[in-house]
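Appendix B, example 12.
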Amino acid sequence: MNMNQIQLTQSQFYIHSPNGGFVATYTIQNEKINISFGNQNLSLAYTFDHPNLKIYNAILTEDNAVYLIIDGFSETETLAILFLSETACVRDIVGHGLTDFKVIDGQAYLLYHEEGLFHENGDNALNGYSGHVLLKWNPAENKMEQVLPDGFLELIVDANSFCADEKGDLYIFYYGDFEEECGKFCLKYQMQTKQGEFYPVSEYYDASFYQNNHLFAWDGKGIAEFNEQLERIDYSLIDTEGYTGVSAAYYEMIFMKRDSCHVYRQLA
């Protein structure tokens, strides 16, 4: 496990990328948001009159579109998701209870714990109970859709994190039920066949990513490595004293602090 510490100024944020993430800055002017990193600059459409955004999570896709989990839109009173490309700028409500966020095949996947939001299907768009657990957002239609069939939703009480492999499998860490047992599990869900397998796990895992047939997950003290059978084969203790949040995407995990971030990347 490779570790790198990066200093951050107030105007900088970390953005996950398929080829390795980086620190970036942004400016908003004339219906454009400019995201700069290294010697590169992305100039993307931005149609909202909100010049100051607090960015909680950011993902750059292979075709240079950007997904942001943000605060800063006062009329929503909660988090929002923002899609940016050269020609499109789309926003939707994320709400409370978001525990993980990934972009898979050009669509955003949003995981919620039990006090989360399930969008327009809730009694209150800002405080609804997330019976859907996992939502898929298509920015082209600006529409949220349920991902898991109802039979799986009945088992999941509190979802912690998730990731995906190259075969269309989702790995969802959660607390809840399976058969006659109650405890901590990982659901391996095949998106095409809509079939699932359940594996008991010993800890809560609040961030995860998948690489080279192995799954890596953070339990609050260290990063566990699992094989395809969800057997833990390695464990790395991590000193993250003072960190304020953790996110994972592609092949890395980021621990944020007030003025820096620690990047943990699995070497190929």
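The mean pLDDT is 87. The CA atoms of residues 46 and 115 lie 31 Å apart.
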